[in-house]
Amino acid sequence: MAPPRIFITGGTGYVGGTVLHSLVTRHPEYSITxxxxxxxxxxxxxxxxxxxxxGDYDSADVISDAVSKVDIVxxxxxxxxxxxxxxxxxxxxxxxxxxxxxxxxxTGVLSDWRDTKYHGKLNPKIWSDIDDIDEIWSRPDxxxxxxxxxxxxxxxxxxxxxxxxxxxSPPDIYGRGRGPGRRRSAYFPFFWKDxxxxxxxFYAEDGTNTRSFVHIDDLMELYLKVVEAAAAGGEGADWGKxxxxxxxxxxxxxxxxxxxxxxxxxxxxxIQQDEPVCLPKEQVAGFVPYAGLSIGTYLYMSNSRVRxxxxxxxxxxxxxRPTLWETLDTEIxxxxxx
Length: 338
Ligand SMILES: NC(=O)c1ccc[n+]([C@@H]2O[C@H](COP(=O)([O-])OP(=O)(O)OC[C@H]3O[C@@H](n4cnc5c(N)ncnc54)[C@H](OP(=O)(O)O)[C@@H]3O)[C@@H](O)[C@H]2O)c1
Hints:
Blueprint: E1 5-8, H1 14-26, E2 31-36, H2 43-46, E3 51-54, H3 60-67, E4 72-75, H4 82-93, E5 99-104, E6 127-128, H5 133-136, H6 146-159, E7 163-169, E8 172-174, H7 187-198, E9 202-204, E10 210-215, H8 216-231, E11 244-246, E12 250-253, H9 254-267, E13 277-279, H10 281-285, E14 289-290, E15 293-294, H11 295-301, E16 306-307, H12 312-315, H13 324-337
The structure holds NADP nicotinamide-adenine-dinucleotide phosphate (NAP).
């Protein structure tokens, strides 16, 4: 069988860059093309066999044309960007042959951040990517990533016979990335920035709100399995409505994260106290303002708890990398460096 032709986006980002690096390293036989708007200086040296298409996510014609020449698209970088996703689908369905689309979304779509009842408190709901699949595909408008998941849902209904879609829905990711650009995740760099304002790690209410986590290298094992299944014609993985993959391996409450972070920061001499502080909800909600959304509420006061059921059976997926607690010191050291 000829090696698969792959088109990847977000190859300079934390997730997309690590996917690119993992594919090149594990599957040098794959024929890979990357969409890049900024080409890192080291790119050609690091990845001499990866072809580059110059463009950004709004270069609809460039994207549609490029994906019409490949078998598999791995779309990372901005899980909410509609024009790029529409351009990818348009290009893929223009082909006669079956195509595969592996789209990065995230468990933010299941977060209870808009429900004030659970701000700073434990929500008992744990989502399964098998048992709750109907509910997952029925999330209300306005939830994070729902706009693009709706586009994928329509594509599944209209083109499911020739376009096989997998949604990768990781929770918060930790661990160092391996790509040619950004290698840091989101949670700890944001948390450190807000800790500097407050003077200590923090939580709201009783801080029992809980989120799932995954190490970037565990997530990559799942990506590789799904890409390998696509390369084998789809065999061995779920696609379409059932092709929805959580990747979580553990969970942590905000108060436990704040306590552990305080100990690490105090030991590093970065703060004066080794205990976190409880802040009013209104103050936490004001952190990380972004496009009119209160990302502070989402990051520090919400729950998004998931159970990774789908990947377990076919792929034997489980967390094998160091836990969040084992990695925390490095994670925080990296955030301090930025
Ligand atoms: N990190 C997490 O914990 C996590 C967990 C679940 C879901 N997610 C979701 O995954 C997505 C990616 O996260 P990330 O942490 O990998 O982000 P990131 O490190 O900021 O990477 C973004 C990537 O997308 C590219 N990009 C962004 N906008 C573009 C545009 N308009 N045109 C061309 N390229 C563009 C960037 O290219 P440049 O280098 O040129 O800027 C970069 O390669 C986000 O939507 C996030 O919500 C993240």
